[in-house]
Structure formats: C-alpha cells, structure tokens
Amino acid sequence: MPRKPVTNSRPASRATRPAAPNASAKRPPTLTDLRGEIDRIDKELVGLLNRRAEISLQIGQVKHQQGLEVWSPAREDEVVARALAESAGPLPPETLRLIFRELMSGSRALQRTLRVACLGPKYSYSHLAAVAKFGEAVEHVPVGSIAAVFEEVNRRHVQFGLVPLENSTDGRIADTLEMFVRLPGLKIRAEVRLRVHHCLLGRCDWGQIQRVYSKGQALSQCRHWVGKNLPQARVIDVVSTAAAAEHASREEFAAAIASRAAGDAYGLRVLAPNIEDQVHNVTRFAVIAERAEERTGHDKTTLMLRLPNQAGALARAIAPFEKNGVNMTWIESFPTADGANHRDPTYLFFLDVEGHVDDEAVQRALEAVRKRCDRLEVLGSYPRGECVES
Fold this sequence. Notes:
Distance between the termini: 98 Å
Oligomer: single chain
CATH architecture of the largest domain: 3-Layer(aba) Sandwich
C-alpha cells in the first residue's frame, strides 16, 4: 500500500502565526531617552566650541605678530553668512545669527576686550545696534551725545564708536554729519542697518497716559500714531529712548516710546507694539574708527564733497561716477557756514557709492571728481551691511 505523506502534526494556525515583534525596537523614545541624547550632543558642542576658541586665540597671536586688528567686520559677516547657508533648519536664521554673533564676540574677548562708544544709556537703539554688530562680550561705553562718541574715538579712549547716519523715515542725522565735517580723519569701518520697532511702554493703562517721553527721532517716526491714539498726551523730547523708558518707570501716568528691550530693562509693560508709522523703519548706523577697512569685494564708499557756489556744480562733480560705471546710492546736502562766509552758507554733500576706494573704477571716478570740488574727503570704504532686527 502507498505510504501516506508526512504532515506537520501542529495545528496550521500555530504554524503560520508570525513571530512576535521586538517590542524595544518599535518603542518610541521616552523623555529620558531624548534628554540623554541632548546631553550627549551638548557635551560634544562644548568641546567643539572650546576647540574653536583655542584656534581663535592662535589667530589672535598671528594677527598681533602681523600688526592686524582683532576685529574684522568682513570676516565675521562671512562666517555668519556661511553658517546660514549651511543650515537646513529647523533653527530659524535669526537664531543662528545670534548664536554665531556671541560666539565670535566671546572669542574676540579672549584676544582683547574692545571698547565701543555709543549714544546711551543701555537699551537705546544705538546700544542695540552696537550689540548687533559687536555682541555682548565688549565693553559698551554709553555717552551723552553723538559728538561725544566721535571725541571718545578721536582721543583713543575707545577703539570704535557707533553713530546713527540716516533713517528711512527722517533722512539724515545732522549731528553725525556735522561731526564728520569737524573730524574727517575718522573712518567708517562698517555699517549696521537696524530695523527699528517702537513700542509704547508704561505702567499705567492706556487711557491714563498724560505724558509720552522719547527721543526726537523716535517721536517723529511715530507722530501720526501718537496724534491719532494719544491726542490728550503731552509729548516730551528727551536725550534717548532708553532715558524715556527710565522716566516712564519713575513717573505716574507717563509712557515711553522705546524698544521692547528697554521696556524689559525698566519693568514696563508693552501697551502697544510696533507703533512706527512706516513698516520698513530702518536706521543706518556707522561704526567709526581711526583706521580704514580693507577691500572685500562687496563694499560701499562714503564721501564728503564741498563744491563751488556755481550753477551746475553738483551735476559736473558727480558726472564721473556715471562715466565710470560707479553707482551712487545716497546723497544728502548739508549747509555749512565758515569764516567770512557765515552769512552766505555753502553746502557740503555726503554721498555713498558702490565699491571700495581701491577699486579701479572708483579710483578713476574719484580722480575726476576731485578736480571739480573745492574739497573731497573719503570717509570710509566698508562692507555693505545686512538689515538686522532690533
């Protein structure tokens, strides 16, 4: 008789049942797991940051041997730009910018502590612009006027000064231009383009406000908003927005127009944010120093011209820029009275052109311009700055 085929004696259901999955492989990470991973990454980060600082110290020694300055705005801008380009997220660009700014600021301080003068006190927009450019690891020296910033640099009490140059709403800053007339030997080393957001700050309720303090430029940039929303309040001009916040912190029924940072510093509530009349409210600051900045390839140059009092003098003076393909991006006139002509003032002109004074096209243009002016001063060639938030 034929043999019966051999069959599996186990039930079919048991033979086809899949193997039990590895529970640990599929388990989502716990909070403890994730925190442990963060701790491991932090340990690696600390080691890398300190290694970077050691190399920075070596760079400082090389710079010292070669007679170079500690601060190089072009190089720091390059480092930040590269970091932003390498990032695929999820950290936002502004967060990375702040991290690298303070990393470079701390590394610089290991080489030498820089002193930077600005219109104070702390938390004024000039101070915020200085922090945006140099970071916190410098000695910020607040002074009482724009003239004092120039004098601090000129007397070598500080290495750098920071002064407002122009505002997108109000135009030129006359006090700064006047000081360039008096001390043209100081050079612009860098620029800071700060997007300015004004806040209404106070301790009382909106309807109780009787006085509003701020600096003249800030009041001008918010004049329509204030006129519409606080018609009953008396507007008082003070030396700085930070000083305005201090007044509002001490006085009853008073408010200030200043930065959010100033409000935090003086314990004030933000009663209304972003009250500037123009959304794109940008103030351009100049970093001034004794020495000029080297060519980077993405520069601008600021000039000061005195022209003869003749019809068409300005048109003739600036014609060489067009002829040599040099783009002019800013021009301001500034009256000056000197000597016997104080009753009939002549005008100085402040100009920005694209390019560095060492660029061939800029050199050719300046040679021709100089022949058509009574006076030509190169106030500085420096890297073009990106706009940063206040």
